[in-house]
């Protein structure tokens, strides 16, 4: 890292410390934790955009798949649900997959054009109705079981940390499908395709109650760290807290957050380390060559499409991991809360502002933009109060402006993005 | 003696900040005459033409039309000064009809363009039949006619053609050259680059043979045709 | 026979009419996207939010008109406000172009850079709309609710099924038809419109012909403002206005433009209807139609809905992928860059 | 040996390559000349897998290689350079060379992460080889320069250098001389001859400079209007009436000026 890089990182650390000093350490740690997760998402997008020039605007979908992994891995299984229709459901899903595979195989066979299309179409349409015939009763049976509390299959009941790599795998699987279809076409097409898959993932999470309880949300996910109440009951902890002059409630809240920070930092550092190593290796050299000039890289024996697919899957997997971590931190999966502006485009702002192509830059962008995202609201409110201080207390405009301060975030992010693109298009930490 | 209508004098320069491609190249054409630039591949023929039209930076030398110095004008401003240019490739609006292509050629004109369109149709009768057809659907030779027609719509005093016969069949080529002579008879100065040197020199009043961005031989078409050295030039020198 | 008529009426009421209205809205949106792509050569992610902004501007003007007691009889007041809304949006887009896009155009920046820039613009516009009008649901349709309502229809025809034609639906179809006719007249018959097509066809040759690129760009933005505002207002009248729903229209709109062939206006219209009808057909509960057509013992027990309405994005997406895989230039030949 | 049989490539109605058939013998330096628009570069692009042919067949040592993607042709030992240099502009000259060899340990992610020892050893070898190539091309002083900063001629040398990083069987050079000054062109010519003699490379060269062609190439193939017009030694080609005709233009051979007007 350059001297400029160190300075920027020191400045970022100072921002968080200042937040702690002036607005409380609880908030500072909350920002730090989401900052760590944002940095990982930002790294994932940077792998795709910075290393390979792939335009992915479906980050939200991959993040949400990570969230789903947290539920599927960590929640205890709902035995009644499984008994009611679990196996039938799995069978239906297997049937659906078999139909798709068969359709692809038919398409790959070199039989006459018209014939091939007809067979494939018949297979898909017939297969769809078979699939629904098998799936629907199973779904109804599962969702009928105690819908206000469960009504779904639950998960595997494994430690929630296991969900992090699993989230990566789920996201990688989705990325493989998209990549196969849209990579190698024009960049706009990949963008629209990823935008679409993200919406579909969210639609599935919202609708398939048997899978994710839909908009009823899954709450109370197991944690990788102790609960505050348990810590407060632990004499040793209370004593140690008293040693720092903290009351048990504050101390337990902070300690839990610090533990999360530690876990997240380990993941971030590991991914950053791997990304840096990959970039500095012959693999990274090959990727840079492909980004510089696809035609020449192809003529020099590099399989451009395969490499694009690889890096696209890798970047999406990183986003999936971050998504699983975020759901773990929240302790709940709320499909309704996924918004593309927040989970896709904000991550893009992080990458561009930080410096696309530079991993350290992407991480810095993750922290900085997240900090701003949180701080813009109080800052905006404060600014609005300043602006409206001269107005009458019951003025319509004053009320409107103060109420609207919460909406300042998006505009601020947009202005920051536009300013960076215009005046410092390589970001805060340029690639080289 | 009056100065020729179009002069590119002692032009030196290249594209952007790259190396010079032209080295003191001079081209001049009188009103109503045809000048042809020929030479081996890579001799800078198209570059010389583009220099006259203002599409590259001249380090030294000047371009004058009708005695007026236009060295520092942009290509668009040169169009207003009566120059028209037909690029070698993508020289039509493919999704627009033939007639719309001609209308676009006359975009800067505010007067009635119908007579000019009729003149173009008289020159290229096939275009009259195809006036409602998209230009992109026409054959190679017809496209070239559209391209030349579009350029004529500004009623230029100078018509510049960059390899108008590239990729068209010999019969169409004959036809096209005939039309170009007709245009010149109407008093329009013609400067063109041609691959098909023999044929082009036959209709040329003046021929310029360029080698490595400089004038190698200049003369009437017939003189150059008779010159053994010139023939040799085309296979490298 | 009555059953058959009932089936037809049900189909019209729940599939054909809503599909046509939605298709018209998408087509107008896709026309804007495709014009920007054809002339400015980038995919504009801010288009959904441009529609939101235009609608908001129109709503504000509508409120202004209503507050001074102006209304449009049985037509919604928003139609009077529409031209003013378009003008405001046009000013915004011209300002955006001057302040932001022009810089990159002069630099000849890569299209993907412009796409990212448009994401920044999207943020700002989205923020602006939320800031000014808030995030709540705004219903601004006034005037008559129905041209024909279901009860009247039943009384008129004696059928069991009612056919309701909401006035907003009719307005959508008529306005969209007028807008498209105007657009095609402009592009095909006027000097300026032709110069836009020429610019889209062959930029360099357009310059050689003396066409002023900045003028073409400005006119394009104005037309885009008109199309986006009209599409947004029609959608808002038909459903209701909510700041973020317009962002979600981005996917079906882009899908429509790509399916039709990016850069091809005719394709955008066809694409809009293809996407809209597919969406409605696949998410419609067919039971209502089928009960009239099937013999009693074969009547379906379930809703016969292929996909839940929440999966409408999946429909746009699936059509998009199919077209990308098998006909990447779209149904009508679009530009390939 | 490469054989091209009745190859066609059409762009819409334009027949860029219109039934070309030719052979490139192993061990030769075959020149490919012809006027602009004769279809030379399109022919290269079809042989090298950049464009699928409309019809026709390309074989390499008897194996059908028609329509294979460029990276697979590379593995078979078929390499090419470009008319307009395609360097990796943000990478150094040395990196441009080091990326070329196939099957590098460090090109798989797993090894990139966990196989540092092996990579380091291999990188040292690659760097050494790259430096040898740079010395051969007399541009050692540019090793650490970004390739984007090179002059046009130097980029052409770099492209040639890339083909030297592996044991190529046949190399297609598209206008090596374009934008290259005379001295540098001689350097390139020397390098090509040495590679041909010392390493047994087969070359197929598109070039407009007839001195260059005359010095290096035997045989020379002349293309015009998408077809092969003539083939022979450089001397014979330059004396060939049909070839002179192709360069001077066709069509009006039997007409006089008077008739034209």
From TrEMBL, chain A:
Keywords: Cell membrane, Membrane, Transmembrane, Transmembrane helix. GO terms for molecular function: branched-chain amino acid transmembrane transporter activity. Its main location: membrane. The lineage of its organism: Bacteria, Pseudomonadati, Pseudomonadota, Alphaproteobacteria, Rhodobacterales. GO terms for cellular component: plasma membrane. This is Branched-chain amino acid transport system permease protein LivM. Pfam families: BPD_transp_2. It is found in: Cell membrane. The chain crosses the membrane at residues 7-25, 31-47, 54-74, 86-106, 118-135, 155-177, 189-205, 258-279, 309-329, 341-360, 367-384, 404-423. It is a multi-pass membrane protein.
UniProtKB/TrEMBL annotation, chain B:
The lineage of its organism: Bacteria, Pseudomonadati, Pseudomonadota, Alphaproteobacteria, Rhodobacterales. It comes from Limimaricola hongkongensis DSM 17492. One of its GO terms (biological process) is L-amino acid transport. CDD domains: ABC_TM1139_LivF_branched. It holds the Pfam family ABC_tran. Residues 6-237 form the ABC transporter domain. This is Branched-chain amino acid transport ATP-binding protein LivF. Keywords: Amino-acid transport, ATP-binding, Nucleotide-binding, Transport. Belongs to the ABC transporter superfamily.
From TrEMBL, chain C:
One of its GO terms (biological process) is L-isoleucine import across plasma membrane. The keyword Transport applies. GO terms for cellular component: plasma membrane. InterPro entries: ABC_transp_permease, BCAA_transport_permease. Keywords: Amino-acid transport, Cell inner membrane, Cell membrane, Membrane, Transmembrane, Transmembrane helix, Transport. The chain crosses the membrane at residues 20-40, 52-74, 80-100, 112-133, 163-187, 216-237, 306-326. GO terms for molecular function: L-isoleucine transmembrane transporter activity; L-leucine transmembrane transporter activity; L-phenylalanine transmembrane transporter activity; L-valine transmembrane transporter activity. It is a multi-pass membrane protein. The keyword Membrane applies. It comes from the Bacteria. It is found in: Cell membrane. Belongs to the binding-protein-dependent transport system permease family. LivHM subfamily. This is High-affinity branched-chain amino acid transport system permease protein LivH. It comes from Limimaricola hongkongensis DSM 17492.
From TrEMBL, chain D:
CDD domains: ABC_Mj1267_LivG_branched. Residues 2-250 form the ABC transporter domain. This is Branched-chain amino acid transport ATP-binding protein LivG. GO terms for molecular function: ATP binding; ATP hydrolysis activity. Keywords: ATP-binding, Nucleotide-binding, Transport. GO terms for cellular component: plasma membrane. It comes from Limimaricola hongkongensis DSM 17492. PANTHER family: CONSERVED COMPONENT OF ABC TRANSPORTER FOR NATURAL AMINO ACIDS, CONSERVED COMPONENT OF ABC TRANSPORTER FOR NATURAL AMINO ACIDS-RELATED.
